Amino acid sequence: MRGSVSSSVSRRATAPLLTDPVGTVYGVGEKRAVALATEGIETVEDLLLHIPRLYMDRRVLLPIARIAPDTEATVLGTVRKTGVIPGRPGRFEMMLGDDTGFLKCTWFGDKWMRGLRNRFAPGDLIMVSGKVSFFNGKQIVTPEYDILNDKDDDTLHTGRVIPVYRSSAGLREAGLDSRGFRRIVKPLLDRLGSDIEESLPDAVRLAAGLSSRAEALYTAHFPQTPEEAERARARLAYDELFYMELLLALRKHRAEHTASGIVFQEKSPLARRFVETLPFALTAVQKRAIREIHGDMCRPRPMNRLLQGDVGSGKTVVAAIAMLLAVETGYQATLMAPTEILAEQHALVLRAFFDPLDVPVTLLVGGLPARERQRRHEQTATGSARIVVGTHALIQQEVAFHRLGLAIIDEQHRFGVAQRALLREKADATPDMLVMTATPIPRTLALTVYGDLDVSILDALPPGRKPIATTWIPEAKWDAIYQVLKTEIDRGRQAYIVYPLVDESEKTDLKAATDMAEKLQRETFPDLRIGLLHGRMKGNEKDAVMRAFKAGDYHILVSTTVIEVGIDVPNATVMVVEHAERFGLAQLHQLRGRIGRGEHASQCVLVNGYDPDKPIPDDALRRLQVMTETQDGFRIADEDLKIRGPGEFFGTRQSGLPGLKIADVLRDETLLQSARQAAFDLVAQDSRLTRPAHRLIRGVLARRYADVAAWVEV
Ligand code: ADP
Ligand code: MG
Fold it and tell me: Contact, 674 vs 210, CB < 8 A?
């Protein structure tokens, strides 16, 4: 088989090009082409990149009698009977037999039923692979399987390492199950032979010890051994990662070399005075971040920096100092936050910081009275507003700055690249950009999502923070919870009770929060003051409640997740989260970050609101466990990534990067680092990609990444 790669030197006249529509592939008619297109497979190349999701190693077939529980095994047998077990809906079984015994194959869950019922018939010859367990006999749960009734292409399907393809109901209907894929991909590869264009420059490919693209594609589909398959996959993954990093490298290079930025003045008496007024000393990591930012701002190239720091790590002070540097040189600075309440909170904090320095802070949010909005727009346009804090309202068309020099974005992951760009466009010269995030992203992901930014990390909290004791209770034992609340409040502390509100239109959850606040006030704590905060309140109402809570006027704040970001009340030491199982890990971490901000020890109680008769889903259980085990944002982010997978982790799409089909940033961290190094080195040497050896890169960019590469202007 391998021979075909090198032996078919001459491509037959009919062999398709990689860019040809998938319909030109032998065996793909109109119906299949449509089914493939709905899965994003539109060209010959797409089809080749639809590599197997796993391989069954059928070089070793065992008789059923010889397979042992807790091992992976592949078995060939005939179907004896199939069906749903009476009284046990949601469970489909198939009994398989060979000369030596029986093996039960079991599938759980309704999603399987429809498809499986009619798939197997008694007498079918089937190969299954999977982990053997023992439950009233030998069993494999959710096996990989292959129906081998017709033997015309034995060599493709048996006795070797067999590719298993991702399929879908639509694809299967068009005959493209795993087996169907094998039948169209094999002849295609044989026809293309070595005539598949290389996509990596030789120097890059050889330095990384990678095979040719032609060989990798062939081997990824039809390997001799699983190890060979993995090497081929790695080569294709490297390819994707290299181009993604190349785009980042080009974007970064362009930002640094074509735009001329502002050179801010080096000395800042304002910033110095500010630091002297602070009631605390800056931490070493804050100082380091400030030095890095200051260095960027004094240089002629525009700053593009990410300030990453866990909740409570003290990013605001760092941002404030950057703003003073801008103001001192005669520029305006702006800070954009994702929610009104957070923008308001920032304005409050910054006013407290800057009033003594006579630097005015202007707030721009939606829903201001027309006249007031007009006034603030004017102040922004004439430059009398030196520091403008706001929400998306800042990037509205009507907003113009007199002389914007520094743009800061808080909770950057909630905005997209487009919004970052809009904010940047508010300035005549290219302003310096600082984006802040409290979502500690694992290093690997940072390299991709923020791959074109310089990064400053606040990796230590200010001193004196007490750890937060976190517990989760399977069902609401409210008496015990009330006791905790009472004890802390008697000591002079305050508490949050948080309700999930997935979507602000979810009336029932809102009602739960409102009812809870009323009930607490009426029945449980008639002598205490209970506040209520939710997303449907008007900006000024929310503001009033927050101020009151911060001033200590409420003992308990019942709230929806509007408090998730940025709220800072160091005297609050208890947080009770209702229906904690409904929250994501990152969100729980953010919420919990609202306590443990002062000198007192804090407690977080996660309440599982699940029906006690129903088992709690594994994912939710895992999240709650992680929360009780650690407070380390990086560990939590890692776990989150494992539970959710990188695709969903957070708006990777928003990052404006090409999607990854083969590479997996978690699993391929080493590859990613090596691809990144190679890409950045290449751009450093030949930023316009004019060397002959790099012509092929331009070709790939134009062909594969036309949509995302436009802004690179190579
Ligand atoms: P975040 O990074 O979550 O935005 P903040 O900037 O809100 O964190 O800071 C959290 C709290 O820590 C605030 O009350 C802030 O005043 C305080 N803080 C910041 N820096 C220090 C420091 N160096 N020493 C003590 N407290 C600090
Ligand atoms: Mg903050």
Answer: no
DSSP-based three-state secondary structure for 482 = helix
Q: Do 309 and 405 have their domain in common?
A: yes
Give a three-class secondary structure readout of 125-182.
EEEEEEEEEECCCEEEECCEEEECCCCCCHHHHCCCEEEECCCCHHHHHCCCCHHHHH
Which residue, judged by its Cα, is nearest atom 15 of ligand 1?
Answer: 314
* Tens digits of residue pLDDT in 384-415: 999 999 998 998 888 999 999 999 999 766 66
Residue 437 belongs to domain with CATH number: 3.40.50.300
Q: Give the mean model confidence (pLDDT) for residues 628-644.
A: 83
**How close is the Cα of 290 to the center of ligand 1, in Å?**
14
278 lines ligand 1 (CB under 6 A): no
> Per residue in 23-82, pLDDT tens?
999 999 999 999 999 998 999 999 999 999 888 777 778 899 999 988 888 888 999 998
CA atoms within 13 A on the CB side of 47: 35
Whether the per-residue pLDDT at 506 is higher than 60: the answer is no
Q: Is 282 in the pocket of ligand 1 (CB under 6 A)?
A: yes
Q: Which ligand is nearest to the CA of 458?
A: 1
Q: Which ligand is nearest to the CA of 307?
A: 1
609 burial type by CB count under 10 A (0-12 exposed, 13-18 middle, 19+ buried)? middle
pTM of the model: 0.69
Separation of CA 312 and ligand 2 centre (Å): 7
Distance, CA 266 to ligand 2 centroid (Å)? 26
Number of domains in the chain: 4
Q: Are residues 45 and 188 located together in one domain of the fold?
A: yes
Which residues lie below 8 Å from residue 237, measured CB to CB, with a gap of 6+? Answer: 660, 662, 663, 664, 668, 671
Question: Under 8 Å CB-to-CB from 401, ≥6 apart: which residues?
Answer: 332, 334, 380, 381, 383, 388, 426, 427
CA of 598 to the centre of ligand 1 (A): 9
pLDDT at 236: 96
pLDDT above 80 (res 218): yes
Helix pair angle (618-629, 585-592), 10° resolution: 30
Nearest CA to ligand 1 atom 20: 314
Which of 317, 345, 408, 461 has the most ligand 1 atoms within 8 A of CB, as the residue to mutate?
Answer: 317
Give residue 660's pLDDT band: very low, low, confident or very high (50, 70, 90).
confident
Considering the domain boundaries, does residue 253 fall inside one?
no
CA 319 to ligand 1: nearest atom: 6
Report the C-alpha dihedral over residues 478, 483, 484, 490, rounded to 10 degrees: 140
Q: Is residue 428 part of a domain?
A: yes
For ligand 1, is residue 320 a contact (CB within 6 Å)?
no
Q: Are residues 44 and 129 in the same domain?
A: no
Residue nearest to atom 4 of ligand 1 (CA): 315
| Protein residue closest via CA to atom 9 of ligand 1 | 314
The answer, yes or no, to whether any atom of ligand 1 lies below 6 A from the CB of 196, is no
Task: Tell me which residue of 168, 173, 188 sits closest to 53, measured CA to CA.
Answer: 168
Find the ligand nearest to 566 CA.
Answer: 2
Ligand number nearest CA of 352 is 1
For ligand 1, whether the C-beta of 286 sits within 6 Å is yes
Q: How far is the CA of 319 from the centre of ligand 2 (A)?
A: 10
Q: Which domain holds residue 524?
A: 468-630
Q: What is the pLDDT of residues 303-313, one digit of tens each?
A: 989 999 887 88
